[in-house]
From TrEMBL, chain A:
SUPFAM superfamilies reported in the protein's UniProt record: P-loop containing nucleoside triphosphate hydrolases
One Pfam family it belongs to: oligo_HPY
GO cellular component: plasma membrane
Family classification: Belongs to the ABC transporter superfamily.
Keywords from the named record: ATP-binding, Cell membrane, Membrane, Nucleotide-binding, Transport
Protein name: Peptide ABC transporter ATP-binding protein
CDD domains: ABC_NikE_OppD_transporters
GO molecular function: ATP binding; ATP hydrolysis activity
ABC transporter domain: residues covered: 6-257
UniProtKB/TrEMBL annotation, chain B:
A cellular component term, taken from the record's GO annotations: plasma membrane
Designated name of the protein: Peptide ABC transporter permease
Signal peptide: none
Pfam families assigned: BPD_transp_1, BPD_transp_1_N
TrEMBL record, chain C:
Keyword field: Cell membrane, Membrane, Transmembrane, Transmembrane helix, Transport
GO BP term, pick one: transmembrane transport
Cellular component terms per the entry's GO annotation: plasma membrane
InterPro entries: BP-dependent_transpt_permease (IPR050366), MetI-like (IPR000515), MetI-like_sf (IPR035906), OppC_N (IPR025966)
Name recorded for this polypeptide: Diguanylate cyclase
Compartments, as annotated in UniProt: Cell membrane
Residue ranges crossing the lipid bilayer per the database entry: 51-72, 114-136, 148-169, 175-194, 233-260, 280-305
UniProt domain ABC transmembrane type-1: residue ranges: 112-302
Record family assignment: Belongs to the binding-protein-dependent transport system permease family.
Organism: Salipaludibacillus keqinensis
Membrane topology reported for the UniProt record: Multi-pass membrane protein
Domain of life: Bacteria
Amino acid sequence: MSGTLLEINDLAVSFSTQGGEVQAVRGVSFAVGPGETVAIVGESGCGKSVTAQSIMRLIPEPPGRIKHGSIHLHGKDLASLTEKQMRNVRGKQIGMIFQDPMTSLNPTLTVGDQLTEGILTHEKMSQREANKEAIELLHLVGIANPDERLKQYPHQFSGGMRQRLMIAMALMCKPELLIADEPTTALDVTIQAQIIDLFKEIQEKTGVAIIIITHDLGVVAQIADRINVMYAGEIVEYGTVKEIFYQPEHPYTRGLLTSVPRLDGDRSQPLIPIVGTPPDLFAPPVGCAFTSRCKYAMKVCQAHDPEVTELSEQHYTKCWLQDDRVEKPY
Amino acid sequence: MLKYIFKRFLWMILTIWIIVTLTFFLMHAIPGDPLDVADVGSSDAASANLAAYYNLDQSLPMQYVTYLKNVATFDFGPSMTSRSRTVNDMLESGFPASLQLGLATLFFSVISGVALGVFAALRHNRMIDYVTMILAVIGISIPNFIQSMLFINYIAVNIEFFPIARWGTYRHVILPAIALASGPMAIIARLTRSNMLEVLTQDYIRTAKAKGLSARKIVVKHALRNALLPVVTIMGALTAAVLTGSFVVERIFAIPGIGQYFVSSISNRDYPMIMATTVIYSSILVVMMFIVDILYGFIDPRIKLHAKED
Amino acid sequence: MALTQNRTNKQKIDDSLFVPLDKHSAELDVMVRPSLGFWQDAWKRLLKNKLAVSGLFLIVLLTIMAIIGPWLTPYTYSEQTLSNQNMGPSSEHWFGTDNLGRDMFTRTWYGARISLFIGFSAALIEFIIGVIYGGISGYKGGRTDNILMRIIDILYGLPYLLVVILLMVVMGPGLFTIIIALTLTGWIGMARIVRGQVLQLKTNEYVLASKVLGANTSRIIRKHLLPNTMGPVIVSMTLTVPGAIFAEAFLSFLGLGVSAPIASWGSMANDALGVLNTGYWWRLFFPAFFISLTMLAFNVFGDGLRDALDPKLRR
């Protein structure tokens, strides 16, 4: 694919624990182009956060380990960089935003200090210049009186405001890619909408590419160009927002969609939960990991890992129901 | 912030006043006449004279008022054992040695405790971590007076560098300071280590890492500061432990500090001396806790909010 | 696109497998692990900790020796044999004798009785006072809490040595004076821990839920607050014991503890101060060794207990 910013190929991440090896990510591949927004969607524990943190090489090693696969940023493999080389990527080329803005800021340092320390590390710049940048960004993320606010401490900000701070912080060095790990989960619903609007606005103004990790399909529908649906450490379906929402093929994706209310659909339809729990990643099952929860499961699903089927140029799924020999039950 | 400091300051003065008062009345509740112990002549006139000398002829409330006045001006009156000297003389002669020992101990225990704790945390679950923690448990388990005696018996005797007794040069300070400091040092090291480990798992450390900061910068700027907050809070209690510990250590190493006067004043029922030492030690303790409170307010910006809520 | 690369040959898979699975729901939710109660779980974790187990073993051993030790020799702790002054360890006097010809082995284990008795009673008394005081302070909150905490603040500034000395003079020296003197200020730490725990637990949702369901105060305290504060309290108790043993030895060393001829590790060490550098090493060695060993055993066991009871602190 030409014009690719980030390309992840067959990435596998494991954690060694006392009970054995947890295969958190098992062969994930996807790509992000400049300025586009890609979402990773899935339940908690499906490996989406680990994937995000692996891109930044933020998983603690040990116990975590990138087993195989590559993460190419502009053709440079991040998985093989040294820690020192990686530091030049973190914050500078890729910015990251975390789930809980309450705990992600250091309570004992001023906001200004935390905003500017990244840019001061990466670029030759005086504190005064860095402050100017910070004030500009605080304007951009919608924080009033930025020069006053720089001298304050995180506890003087509300939850939504802190997430705005986190976004500003991640954008300080004008990165090409922004990874947002569940950026709205810890916020009130009204604030969530504001933050999503902010992401869209920022993308328009700066042209930054965004990887957004979430379990909230509502968020995805509003912001993403393309969606990766993750289950048990694998991507089970991939497509544009339209394809995923209107022509979902994988039973898990279909399950996700019928388990949340839709404003555009028939509201008399009941919400159907996906029964059961995800498999234990200590010992992932042979065959398709979704078998035990899938209402269309077949014998083949238990025995063989499903293959990836290309549905359109931008739409793939990993499911045996796509095989020619099967008559689709839906 | 100023209001907070002022409030704490008033509270400190109040505490010292209560302790002074308690001490005074407790000392006077003790049965027996202190003048019985001092070898006074048998004549009534002499006793009366002495009673007047020590203000014992006044009514209790009057004695209390006089005493308060004196304490406020740091005048603790004449000693009862060595009648020619005032308590102040004795305190003045003993204070420098005790202060030197106390400061050396605090300095040594804080610096090395923090260093060991940080080191152990950064090498978590490796050899250095285990060794440090085992040493810390041993440091806590061997009482300071035992350590002092072992030091004299095995180190000072064999290594000429360390003098066995007396006071004067920096060499005199080393062994007693180590004996006195090893307990607090071990406590600080353990506390620092566990705080450090806790802090290193915090989300804001990950944020700092995501900004591309170096590991050293993350530890020094983000982790250490937060890990040391709880250490600051135990400084008050540690000071108390060092103060009490200094009584025995001064005795074993024959250091001419306040401790020796205190110990002998107990058996001699030298009331002015006991009261003076108690008041001084309590005051040091209370002032230390005041300083800790203020320091905490400066290090942790969230404290200001709590003060408002108070 | 990268996703398509792991293509295997579809046709290899038998057609007969492409039929719906039946009853697959039977194998749902089979991965539930056996659940252990909190105390069972803590006990298992404690047993895994070799250091803590050896600490516990030492404590038991020291306690047994404190009980039977003095009976193992034909001597008593106060029996003086002036012809046997300062004899080194031998088959007759296993730990040697002191300057009055008293048997050090008997005196050492007699001292262990004193130390352990003081350690255990201090821990017990501090536990009772601390739990009641801290519990009331934390549960009542508000004004009561404020007043109770101010009292603690003042007591905290009072050096315990002074309290001990005053009590010694008022009550006369002795075992009970020491215990009372130690607990008079010693319960403060325990009360603070209990208060902090209760204060925090009280606002927990499950306590609120229980209140909403109509549970009365005594039930909330019994069923929710007490069991959940027990962990830190037990740990604190275990760590109180070495503190009290140290304090007794310290006081006896200063001549403020038990009076002669009663043996205590502290007073034995104090006696040895006069014969430092004379070659009578056993005079210092045995009391010093056993104080340190006892404190080490309790400290190690207490640490292990804390790790076992508080999985969060497990590092």
